[in-house]
Amino acid sequence: MEISINNQKFSVDVDSDMPLLWMLRDHLGLTGTKYGCGIGICGSCVVLMDGHAVRSCKTTVSMAAGKSIMTIEGLSSDNSHLLQQAWEELQVPQCGYCQSGQILTAFNLLQTMSHDLEDGVFPTDDQIDVAMSGVLCRCGTYPRIREAIKLASQKMNKKL
Amino acid sequence: MTYFSPSRRKFLKVSAGIAGSALVIGINWGCDSAREQEKVDEENTFSPNAWLKLDNEGGVTVIVAESEMGQGPYTLMPMMIAEELEVNWSQILVERAPSDPIYGYQLTGGSSSIRKGWGTLREAGAITRTLMVESAAQHFKVSSSECSAFEGKVFHEKSGREIGYKDLIQIASELPMPTEVSLKNIDDFKIIGQPLPRKDVPNKINGKARFGIDIKLPNMLYASIIHCPVFGGKVKRIDSEKAKKIKGVHDIFQINEGVAVVGKDTWTTFKASSLIDIEWDTGKHQNTTTESLIDDIKNTRLGKIEPIWEQGNLDQKQDKVDKLITANYLQPLQAHVPLEPMNCTAHFDSSGNLDVWVPTQSPSEAYKTAKRVSQSKLERGIKKAQKKYLGIHDDSIRIHTTLIGGGFGRRLNQDYVAEVVQIAERYDRPVQLVWTREEDVQHDFYHPMTYHSMTGGLNSEGLPILWDHLIAGYDARKKGAISNLYNITNSRVQLLQKPYKIPKGSWRSVDRHYNVFAVEHFFDELSLAGNHDPVELRLKMVSDSRLRNVLETAVNKSRWGLTDDSVSFGVALIHEWGTYVAQVLELHQIRDNQFNVKKVTCAIDCGIVINPDIVKQQMEGSIVFGLSAAIKSKISINKGRVEQSNYHDYPILRFDETPQIETIIIDSVEEPGGIGEPAVPPVAPALANAILQATGKPVRELPVKL
To answer: What's the pLDDT tens digit per position in B371-389?
Structure first.
């Protein structure tokens, strides 16, 4: 089947019930998306499917066929995305394993918010809580993730 | 000795865009065996010692012999060397050390990396700097006392000449190593003490960072494993008919630790695993339950009580004791559950050499395990003799340590190394073993369950003058109970070891975690019983000025003393790993029986600070880790099996449950202390003390439901 990952089309020959996560990692070598739990609860496997954050461990390849998938590798070619800049400025990652899922979930939040607002995105603590509480981090980078999301939104607003 | 880095010149071109931040580990390479990989272009690099490689293009590579699991050694170790070496931070590249004996015994744990490296690494940097200066002096034909090093160059002020280290490596490689070097004064530090950006961060925000589970090798097979759900059980019978029919399954067979499934990708092995029918001989632990474990450790008549420490008169009826208080604390089994599950990759090449890629905290232990499993006793004996009498290191086994997606002590155990070696032995292709999350939760090396029996005696002024602490547990230990912070006149600590039943391992902060809870919470119970303020009582009884300082700092920065009925505070102290930490936890009451942890104010004195931002990261991370165990999770046993299986029933602290955290780092010129674990133990007692303040009731069992 045909699948589009980071604006590139791939032809894959795997069982249609294979989770997208494992197709990305083992068949396309895109290891930025991680396995953490396999039951959709930790968020390490989050990718964007047609612009929406989904858990790739619970999304089969057949569900993803024909859709446009973005993984962490597709965010930018050079760490230049505003979220990556904020993550780097505030030195968010510790072990780093969950960070792909964290960043893409944050991306989803800011993207969703910016659809409705023309004069800027101002995520509140409550909104950030709701968006981010489904992505687990054992190293405890949560406080910095919160600040990085606010910083990224400020950077976004400056560009308007 | 880097087997999978491209030659240096190529590497530098690739890394030019993210200067100084690319890590070599785990990049795909295209040949069949790690050992066929072209070696680094050695004509153009110079290694003055095990930790440094300088090349003729200005690259300075620091080889780090500590594992990076988020706690920062890939940045901290190079900072210590770079300071003395006199190079610009941006010139520094980082590589993980191989399992070569020149690095000595490698194990990352016990919050020891900075203390281990503080002298050695600075010296290595200073020796190399001195060598560069001497090389330049020779090149300029002047005295070395007229030359000085700065930012990777040597200057001869008198003649206005300068030369870069990169142009000196030929001369340097022929000069004798300097034996007497001077280390910088702390006042002259330019790198140490600065919140420099971490070298590993750029690749951790773009998917490029390679953890053990991300290793991809040509022609690699995948494997997974099923362990007996009951501890100590064995395989009786395997029915793999259905599982073998799954497309892509190569083989299913038994190894020492359980049943292995080998297939063409991870999903295939996971899928096949779920279809295998295994009959287990569950053995003697099949009747173990949490309740039976608790009954056992509460029974102080079973087993030998070992005296650990004693001073003064322990007679509870003595004259001066006016009031006697007792308490018991039960602390549960805890799991590690790092986000990267257990995994290991191994390859036996055509000559029988073994390469292992593993996210391990100890490549030395991984090496020993791989050797024990892959070599016969006779072979091991021969190689041991060769090492002892001829100095020949058995290089047929090499351990490549990757980034680790969370360690917390779990990666000190090398069980997955033993497993993958048994599997890879059957193939000439590389094999990657990945455990499911369920296997990880149920086959951890757990933080032990402990039961603490406390007796305290107050004098007529309500001051503690008697302290008796009995620690009971499975392989329980004593640190954190004997810190003697309060120097109570008549005090004793005893240990009651219960026979090992549940696999036990080191869990971030280890014995200090459960012992500091008992000490700090019981201290507050005594404080309340004696009508004293817990902060004032601590200040009265603590003589160590650094401990008093962190306590006062944390208290002053917090809102301690705020008069608001719905807000309460708890304080806790620790002095371990050469570091002092005080935490004040602010607890808000939302309704009758519901509380919320609003903020933790944390003061730390860890001596000379290498990187203050990394200290803050470790404080934040430790507090989240400690709070998680205090309020969210425990491991329970039924019929000899762990009942939990994933993050839904062994939950860890979430984003929205995380309090504000404020860290104050004390300015100090004392010897550096550890930073990875000290902030874990104070959290639970600080919380319990806040609950005591709010409700008047102590916390006798963890986790506590808020």
So the answer is: 999 998 888 899 989 989 9
The helix/strand/coil state of B587 is strand
- Residues of B (236-265) whose Cβ lies below 8 Å from A: 247, 265
The three-class DSSP label of residue B246 is: coil
For residue B157, the tally of other CB atoms under 10 A from its CB is 10
Q: Which of B199, B655, B663 is best to mutate for the A interface (most A CBs within 10 A)? A: B655
For the stretch B547-577, pLDDT in tens is 999 999 999 999 999 999 999 999 999 999 9
Does residue B201 belong to the interface with chain A, where contact is any CB pair within 8 Å?
yes
Report percent pLDDT > 70 for chain B.
94
At A119, the pLDDT band (50, 70, 90 cuts) reads confident
Query: Could you give the C-alpha distances from B204 to A7, A151, B433, B519, in angstroms and in order?
Result: 22, 18, 23, 39
The token pair that represents B681 in the structure block: 């133990």
Give the nearest partner residue to B207 out of A22, A42, A71, using CB atoms: A71
CA-closest candidate to residue B111, choices B64, B75, B66, B81 = B66
Q: Counting every residue, how long is chain B? A: 706
Determine, for residues B201 and A88 on separate chains, whether the beta-carbon distance falls below 8 Å: yes
User: How many of the other CB atoms lie within 10 Å of CB of B292?
Assistant: 13
**Do the Cβ atoms of B655 and A133 come within 8 Å?**
yes
**pLDDT (tens digit per residue) in B500-531:** 778 999 999 999 999 999 999 999 999 999 99
Rounded to the nearest angstrom, the gap between the alpha carbon of residue B273 and the centroid of all alpha carbons in its chain is 31
Q: What is the mean pLDDT of residues A125-151?
A: 98
Residues in CB range of B679: below 8 A, 6 or more apart: B581, B583, B602, B604, B618, B619, B622, B623, B626
* Ranges of H-type helices in B43-162: 73-85, 113-140
CA distance B113 to B68: 11
d(CA B73, CA B616): 15
Measured in whole angstroms, how far is the alpha carbon of residue B258 from the centre of its chain?
27
Q: Where are the alpha helices (DSSP H) in B266-412?
A: 266-273, 290-298, 363-374, 377-385
| Beta bridge pairs of residue B334 | B447
Angle between helices A125-132 and A142-159 (to 10 degrees): 120
**In angstroms, rounded to a whole number, what is the distance separating the alpha carbons of residues B6 and B632?**
46
pLDDT digits (tens, 9 = 90+) for B574-603: 999 999 999 999 999 999 889 999 999 999
Least confident of B20-29, B119-128, B479-488: B20-29
Contacting residues for B316 by C-beta, under 8 A, at least 6 apart: B324, B455, B457, B466, B468
- Tokens 């109970």 map to which residue? B481
Q: Over 80: is that where the pLDDT of B143 sits? A: yes
CA quadruple B132, B137, B143, B146: dihedral sign: negative
Complex ipTM, two decimals? 0.98
A44 touches B at CB < 8 Å: yes
Residue B492, strand partner residues: B310, B468
How would residue B42 be classed by pLDDT, with cut points 50, 70 and 90?
A: low
Q: Residues B385, B388, B390, B396: is their CA dihedral positive or negative? A: positive
Q: Tell me the pLDDT band of B224, cut-offs 50, 70 and 90.
A: very high
Residue with token string 């984003």 = B655
User: How confident is the model over B289-310, as a mean pLDDT?
Assistant: 92
